[in-house]
Design a protein that fits this description.
Largest sheet: 7 strands, mixed
Strand content: 15-25%
Radius of gyration: 25 Å
CATH superfamily of the largest domain: Aldehyde Dehydrogenase, Chain A, domain 1
Helix content: 40-55%
Shape: globular
CATH architecture of the largest domain: 3-Layer(aba) Sandwich
Distance between the termini: 61 Å
CATH topology of the largest domain: Aldehyde Dehydrogenase, Chain A, domain 1
Structural class: alpha/beta
CATH class of the largest domain: Alpha Beta
Amino acid sequence: MTNNQLITIIEKQQHFFNSHQTLDLNFRKSKLLQLKRVIKELEKEILDALNSDLGKCEFEAFSSEIGWVIHELSFHIKNLKKWTKRKKVNTSLIVFPSAGYIYNQPLGKILIIGPFNYPFMLVFMPLIGAVSAGNVVLVKPSEFASQTSAIIAKIIAAVFNPAHVSVVQGGLETNQELLTRRWDKIFFTGSTRVGKIVMQAAARNLTPVVLELGGKNPVVVDRDANLKIAARRIIWGKLLNAGQTCVAPDYLFVHEEVKEELLVLMKDAIQQFFTENVEENTNYPKIINDAAVLRLKGLIAELNVYCGGYVNQKTKHFAPTILTDVTVESEIMKEEIFGPVLPVLTFENTDEVFDFIQSREKPLSIYYFGEDRKKQREFLNKTYSGNAGINEVVLQFVVMNLPFGGVGYSGMGAYHGKRSFDIFSYEKSVIKTTTKFDFPLRYPPYKKSILQLIRFLLK
């Protein structure tokens, strides 16, 4: 797309927003309903695209991408009328006889930049919130998931006027050009490195951002944990989408007394879920591209492989891999893995773990497995992260009433459910006063008795 074409789209979207069509509640709901219908009609094409780009089987593609988009759409359609109602708030005698109201209004022009790992879901989830809040939107899907990006463009073209919602395809240069433009909000999902670039570009125009990033998510297994369940849940969460999940466990701290037992159980879980030859297992996704495969190979080089480590460069399948004898100084502990590799470290005292986690940037997610409720509370209180799980991994992402987002280097801003509506709108504060009478107390010349009254009311 040329710069002139991009400018034309942005101008048309501004004109469409200024026409106030998106303010109409029925218009918004009709678009959400239409979007839901088209997604259902094109489900087979979406499944094929996700399989082509990431090797996702039907179960994983629907349960972790398509299904959640449909669920989010249903939630917004059901609740949108309630969310858009003005809210009356209490005032005080100081402003009597006035009433106070809060109006939710759309921000305007929204830019959504999607990632490759969940290329369908992580575009449409924020898009739903932007549309339900009454905005115009420009979507930039990931160029690395080209087949999914194409079906995203097809769906959006079938539902929306381009002046309302448009898709721009392209790579790095397109992203750079988009970031030079003036937006009312930018929603970015991706790496912390690119998140810094997005935020820096947005700052030039005082544009607010939502950054959904990642980080090194720790999972801690204490000695009183149900090891069989912990092993299965950790391996499931780690290997979902072949580890290319921002909330996946990144590394594991296990109490040294139960390390060997947990290792055996995790290896057994891998065998049960996927067998030895993962490239022949249609339930196991692939790595997005050759560059990502090579990066993962480099991360495990010269480390002790407890199981896995096999790579099929041609099919881009990377076997589930557990690493042992890892230390906090190991190279693999310095960056987010974003693949099916799990480094295992040991501890004797949970304070060691707390100190280590606190010495690093705040992760997106933290997980603790153990039955002692006091230790569970201690873990939650002494660690800081965007979200957390106790005896669970990943599933905090799918609870509609839990805000999802990071903190610090793992991101800013939270969405899902009503919060997706909230982040793409703003609250306008309104005071409304009668003109049937007018108290003279506010006007000069000021009297001492009036000041005493003001002091009393504001005490």
